[in-house]
Amino acid sequence: MNGNGDIDNKEVLKKYVWDYLMRKYAWDYFALHSGQRLNTFYYFLTASTIIGTGYFFALKDFPLLSMMLAIVLIILSFIFWKWDIRTKQLIRNSEAALKYLESEGPLALEENRILKLFTFEESQTNELKNQNTIWPWKAFFSYSTCLNATFSIFGIFGLVGIVFAIVYVLR
User: Fold this and answer.
1) In this structure, is residue 4 part of a structural domain?
2) Does the pTM of the predicted model rise above 0.85?
3) Per-residue pLDDT tens digits for 9-60
4) Residue 97 binned pLDDT confidence (cut-offs 50, 70, 90)
5) Smallest Cα–Cα separation from 93: which of 32, 20, 19, 17?
6) I need a labelling partner for 72 at 20 to 30 A (CA). Which of 1, 21, 88, 158 fits?
7) Biggest distance spanned by C-alpha atoms of the chain
8) Residue 4 clears pLDDT 70, i.e. is over it
9) Residue 65 CA to chain centroid, in angstroms?
10) What is the rounded distance in angstroms from the CA atom of residue 83 to the CA atom of residue 18?
C-alpha cells in the first residue's frame, strides 16, 4: 500500500504477471506433451502399418523375414506403450498444476466453477467411469484405454504373425 491507503499498482501488476506466466507455463507444458502423445501415436500407427504390410508381402516368399517383422511389431508395440505411459505421466503433472491454478484467484469463486476446465473435466470423467453398462459402445473409454488397446492389438497381431510364419515354414 502507498501512503494514501491505495493498493500499490506495481504489486498488483506483479501478481497478475506472475499468475499469467505460471498459467502459460503450465499450459505450454500440457500442450507440448499432449501433442507429443498424439504425434507419437500417429508414428506408431504409420510404422506398424508399414511393418504389417511388409509382413504380408513377405510371408509367401520370405517367411523368416515375415517372422522377424512380426517380432519387430511386438517390440515396437511394447516400446511405444512404455513411451505413452511416460508421456501420460508428464501430462498428469501439467494437469495437476493447471487444476491448482484453477483453485487460485478469480477462478476459485463458486460462480466461476464452469471455467475450471480441468477440474470440471475430471469430475465429468469420474462420473462417466462410474457408469456401469454391459454394452461396449456405451462404455467410457479414456485416451489411455484406447491407446493401450491399440498397442495390445498390434502386439497380438505380431504374436499371431509369428505363429503363421512358423506354420508356413513347417508345411
Assistant:
1) no
2) no
3) 888 788 888 889 999 999 999 999 999 999 999 999 999 999 999 999 999 8
4) very high
5) 32
6) 88
7) 96
8) no
9) 33
10) 33
Query: Does residue 159 belong to any structural domain of this protein?
Result: yes
Looking at the structure of the chain, the number of domains it has is: 1
The DSSP result for the chain, as a single string, is --TTSPPPHHHHHHHHHHHHHHHHHHHHHHHHHHHHHHHHHHHHHHHHHHHHHHHHHHHTT-HHHHHHHHHHHHHHHHHHHHHHHHHHHHHHHHHHHHHHHHTSGGGGSGGGGGG-HHHHHHHHHHHHHH---S-GGGS---HHHHHHHHHHHHHHHHHHHHHHHHHHHH-
User: What per-residue confidence (pLDDT) applies to 67?
Assistant: 95
d(CA 54, CA 118): 42
Lowest-pLDDT range of 4-13, 68-77, 97-106, 154-163: 4-13
Distance CA 88, CA 95 (A): 10
Residue among 38, 5, 44 at smallest CA distance from 151: 44
* Domain membership flag for residue 3: no
